[in-house]
Structure formats: C-alpha cells, structure tokens
C-alpha cells in the first residue's frame, strides 16, 4: 500500500472511532496526547486536576473531536511521509526540535488588502516558473478557493496546505494566449543595493523559466541599465560571445564598470541559452536633458524612437490609478541632485525612462507571436505595477493597431496582451524597497476611502534567495 493511501486509511479509521461517533470523553486524569496536539492556543487551559476546563465529565464537542483526529493523523503522516516536502526538511537540535523553514517565494494575491500565499515547496516554485515560461502570465484577479471540501481538506491534512498552484496554473492551452497578437513579459525588480546573490537568483529563476520555452519562440533579456545606443554591441555579442568587446562598448555608452561586472554572469548565462538582448534605457544625456530642461529638449528624432505611443503616453498621466502611483510611489524616490533640481524635473525623467523601456520591449515582441521578454530593472521602476511594466500592454496594443492600419500584417491581428500578460517579481526586496515605514514589507498603495478603488499591489510575486525573516513577511495565508 502506498504512503498516501496508508495515511488516508488511517484517517478514515480514526473517523470511525468512538471518539468521532459518540463524541464522549471518558473520565481521564490526563488529556490524551492526540487531543492535546489538536488544541489551539485559544482553547481553554487545564484545571488543577490536569483536565481541560469544560471537557472533563462532559460531552466532547464535534470541533475538538475532529481536532483529535487531525492531530493524530498529522503525527502519523509526518512519519509516513518523511521527505514529501523537502523544503521543510530540517536538522533537529539536541533537544529534538526541528524548526520550520519558511518558504522563499510568495504569490501576492489581489485581495483587499493584498495577502501573501507561500509557494511552500520546490515543486510549486518550479511549476510556477515553468508556467510563466509557457506564456501563462499572471491573473490579476483574486484567487478564489470557494469551499473547503473533502478533497482539498485531505490535501491540507496530508501535505500541509491547499495547493493553490494547481488551481491557478491551467493544464490546457488558453487560446487567448497563443498565436499572433500575444506575448508575455516577466519583469524582475532588483533591490536598491543589488549584490551578486540577487544576480544569482535572477539567473536561477530565468533558467527555470527558459526550460519550458520552445526553441522556435523568440525570447529576450531586457537590460534597463543599457542605453539603446549599445544595442548593436549586444547584437554582436549574441553572435561572437566576445565579452571584452561588449564591456568596452557598454563603458563607452556610459555604463559603469561595477554595473557591468555585476551583471556579466547573467549576460553570460543568457548568451549560453541563445537569448536575445534588449537595451531599454534612453541615452544618459537625454535622461539628463529631460530632468533639467524638460522632455521637449530631448532630440526630436530620438524622442520618437523612445516614445512609440505619444497619445497614450500623455493620457496615462491623467488616469486616477496612475496619479495614485505617482503620489504614493514614483515621487517618493526624489532626491535633489543640486540646488536647482526639482520634483517636476524628476517626474519628467522617470516617466520618460519608463516609457522608453516599455516601447523597446513592445517593439521587440509585437511581430513575434508568443514571444517573451524577461526584463531586469530596479524595484523602483516596477513596484506597484505602474512603472515600465504597467506601460507595456498599452504600447503593445498601439503597435498592433498601427501595424494593422499600415498593412504590415497579412491579416488583421487582434491584440491579446493585457495586464495579465505581464508578471512582476521582486527579488530579495527590503521593507525600504517597498516604501514601508516599518520592518515589514508594504504590499499595497491606496488604502483610504477615496483611493481604495485604485488600490495597487506591490507585485505579483516576491522571491528570496533564502528564507526571509519572520518580521519581514506580512499577511501570510496558509
């Protein structure tokens, strides 16, 4: 008999005991171990005779009886299913206590306020990343787990949690996510003080994502620190693999040596997987011009290449959700660089950088059905889903319309890219990266009665290199 079947048999057998049928508790001096394991911290304490108040010489409640069954089953299942969830396998100390290991990845569910759902095993993490590689995107609606029925109750009893991954990752191909007009995007936000550990994590996640990519599908790695003038050097590197030539070209474009050295392992890995490279940043002198003199001062021809949807670019600033994002997130990063610097110039700079990045990503994917871009940028440029990531669907849709109008496509193409096609993952974020005033991560902006309708969550996923501190994780759901 298999382990799972044996545990189920044990549980069902326990369900037939006198405890569950009659709900009578014999007069005992001490509380049975199985019942003790089922009591929560909110239950009544024992009295001087060693009995639980309200239980001795009285009828056992249905709830406490079920707890008894669950406690016993969990004790037995932990022995029978050793190694079922290797993520939680830990070494006992000298007293026999094995501390739990917290998950390293969390889905940010779109509840109000947002909550965190742990990916509690390596299997669930891998399934999520493989689905992203297959173009699944991430649904922005709240995850619905309607009822605690027998099936998911047993799943929770034996394995520790209801597997929301299996409920959110579809096994069948969604027709709205295939063919011309569809692409998907994974935006990885790097912490403000990026280290080699963060690069290693990004490389690891990208590796799992690429495992489910078909060879004939275009896949790009977008680098937000690379000016667009470095695109020819990136293209040449994909063919030659000459790192020294690439590094020289990036330095010539204004990228710092420290940044180049930090990201080279990721670039090297992407090259080994035949991934295309995308330079996402405007030229540094144009960024400076936008901040000091306004967007109108940027060279006209280059500005046209940076902003592919000028009408949408202008109208987006009037959207109530974007206004909330501007006030509660974007402008929070303003630090004057000199006595003449002001927040208006900073705003012009950031929306210019965000629009240019989204335009480069959309331009690469629009004529490549089911293509994907994995984008690397600072957390500040993707948090709360309204930075570079939030602009991609709009720009992509505008390019589809232009191509249809200009006869670029042999037949009319329907835009299939929505917000759900863009997945945002924050890597090793700190509380400060999320603009939290405390020690816990902040999960949303827009909590007041006048802004609740425009509430935005911090990201779709939060991923750590190792188990985060308990104090960092808020609103954790099992």
From TrEMBL:
Keywords annotated in UniProt: Signal
Entry annotated with the keyword Iron-sulfur: no
Listed SUPFAM superfamilies: EreA/ChaN-like
Top-level taxon of the source organism: Eukaryota
InterPro entries, sorted: Cofac_haem-bd_dom (IPR007314)
Chain ranges of the Haem-binding uptake Tiki superfamily ChaN domain: 208-388
Coiled coil (UniProt feature): none
Family matches, as Pfam families: Cofac_haem_bdg
Extent of the signal sequence: 1-22
Entry annotated with the keyword Glycosyltransferase: no
Name used for this protein in its record: Haem-binding uptake Tiki superfamily ChaN domain-containing protein
Taxonomic lineage from the root: Eukaryota, Sar, Stramenopiles, Ochrophyta, Bacillariophyta
């Amino acid at each position: 008999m298999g382990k799972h079947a044996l545990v189920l048999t044990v549980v069902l057998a326990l369900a037939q005991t006198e405890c569950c049928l009659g709900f009578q508790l014999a007069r005992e001096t001490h509380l049975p171990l199985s019942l003790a394991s089922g009591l929560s911290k909110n239950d009544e304490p024992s009295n001087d005779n060693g009995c639980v108040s309200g239980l001795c010489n009285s009828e056992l409640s249905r709830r406490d009886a079920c707890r008894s069954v669950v406690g016993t089953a969990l004790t037995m299942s932990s022995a029978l299913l050793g190694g079922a969830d290797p993520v939680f396998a830990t070494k006992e100390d000298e007293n026999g206590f094995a501390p739990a290991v917290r998950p390293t990845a969390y889905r940010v569910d779109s509840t109000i306020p947002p909550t965190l759902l742990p990916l509690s095993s390596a299997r669930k993490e891998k399934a999520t990343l493989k689905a992203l590689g297959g173009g699944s995107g991430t649904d922005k609606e709240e995850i619905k787990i309607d009822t605690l029925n027998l099936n998911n109750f047993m799943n929770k009893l034996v394995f520790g949690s209801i597997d929301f991954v299996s409920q959110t990752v579809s096994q069948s191909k969604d027709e709205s996510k295939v063919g011309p007009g569809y692409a998907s995007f994974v935006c990885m936000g790097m912490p403000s003080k990026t280290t080699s550990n963060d690069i290693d994590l990004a490389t690891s996640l990208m590796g799992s994502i690429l495992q489910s990519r078909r060879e004939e599908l275009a896949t790009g790695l977008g680098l937000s620190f690379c000016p667009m003038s470095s695109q020819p050097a990136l293209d040449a590197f994909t063919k030659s693999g000459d790192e020294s030539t690439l590094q020289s070209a990036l330095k010539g474009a204004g990228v710092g040596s420290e940044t180049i050295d930090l990201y080279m392992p990721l670039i090297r890995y992407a090259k080994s997987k035949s991934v295309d490279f995308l330079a996402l940043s405007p030229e540094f002198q144009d960024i400076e011009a936008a901040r000091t003199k306004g967007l109108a001062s940027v060279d006209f021809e280059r500005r046209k290449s940076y902003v592919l949807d000028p009408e949408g670019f202008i109208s987006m600033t009037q959207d109530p959700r974007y206004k909330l994002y501007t006030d509660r997130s974007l402008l929070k990063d303003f630090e004057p660089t000199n006595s003449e610097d002001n927040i208006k110039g900073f705003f012009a700079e950031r929306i210019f950088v965000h629009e240019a990045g989204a335009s480069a990503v959309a331009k690469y994917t629009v004529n490549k059905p089911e293509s994907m871009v994995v984008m690397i940028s600072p957390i500040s440029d993707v948090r709360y889903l309204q930075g570079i990531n939030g602009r991609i669907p709009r720009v992509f849709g505008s390019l589809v319309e232009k191509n249809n109008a200009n006869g670029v496509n042999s037949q009319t193409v329907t835009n299939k890219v929505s917000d759900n096609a863009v997945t945002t993952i924050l890597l090793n974020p700190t509380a400060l990266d999320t603009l939290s005033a405390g020690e816990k991560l902040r999960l949303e902006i827009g909590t007041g009665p006048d802004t609740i309708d425009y509430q935005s969550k911090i990201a779709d996923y939060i991923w750590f290199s190792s188990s985060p501190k308990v104090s960092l994780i808020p609103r954790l759901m099992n």
